[in-house]
Amino acid sequence: MPRLIRPPSPWPALALLAASALLAACGTTPGIEERTGYQVDRRHTAPAQSSRIRHLVLHYTDSGDARSLKTLTGPHVSVHYLIPRHPGDGHAAPRIYQLVDESRRAWHAGASAWRNRSNLNDTSIGIEIVNHGPLDTAQGMRWDRFPAVQIDAVVAVARDIVERYAIDPTNVVAHADIAPQRKIDPGPRFPWARLHRAGIGAWPDPASVAAYRVRFEGQPPTLGQWQRALAAYGYPVIASGELDGQTRAALRAFQMHFRPARYDGNPDAESAAILWALLARYRPTSLERLRLE
User: Fold this and answer.
1) Which of 48, 94, 104, 210 has the fewest C-beta atoms lying within 10 Å of its C-beta?
2) 191 and 247 co-located in one domain
């Protein structure tokens, strides 16, 4: 009896045709992106590249939650993240607002400079913290407090950003640091030391501060040295040898950040000791190069 020969099943061929049609319809050739009028081949990557993000800038809003959100979603100013006064609203983790994608430029820093860069909107992520700043009270001017739950949220967001973009500790800055003649936020009540303990931002070594304090109580730095030291750390200061407006503004911003017990913009041994200790820790070559040792 002759053996019957079955024809091959059509299903494998049909499945292959269907898959090919699906790939063609979706433009899903691996590494190829279809755009209007052209294709982009993403299968090759150049190693000579780096992140756009180099700075993290912290602000306060100078208003409450509702007004802050309205302002920061308006046509004139924006920020990447907004931290409400009491984030959470019953959620297990603090809930904050992301108003601009990290890949895009937010309008939060304005005219600004830090070290060898200007226009920091181009290279930064901004965090606005709901806080009223300086308040007039019957007892005189006082600074609005930052609730602990709010600072916990700031720490969580800032640490995530710093780790993902490998932001240098000295590039975690206040708005006042990068625009000292225009801005004072987030003010002297902001807990920078708390952020540093969480791995965010710079802070001087206490033993180094103590050693420099002894030195400067006997022989304080000249105004020219002050200006060169502030500029070496990052502040937009031009050495004039005079205690001019730009120097006072930069020194006030520095004191609000690192020495909030006194922020009058006047040079003193304690502020000098902190600044030199910061340079020794984060910019050691500048001390010898600028003859600040």
Assistant:
1) 48
2) no
Region of 151 please: left (phi>0), alpha (psi -120 to 50) or beta.
alpha
| Contact of 188 with 174, CB cutoff 8 Å | no
pLDDT digits (tens, 9 = 90+) for 189-221: 999 999 999 999 999 999 999 999 999 999 999
CATH of the domain at 140: 3.40.80.10
Range(s) of the domain holding residue 101: 55-197
Q: Is 270 a catalytic residue?
A: no
Reported residue count of the chain is 293
> Do 229 and 204 touch, CB atoms closer than 8 A?
no
Q: Which of 33, 34, 102, 128 is catalytic?
A: 128
pTM over 0.70: yes
Backbone angles phi, psi at 159, to 5 degrees: -65, -40
* 147 CA to centre of own chain: 20
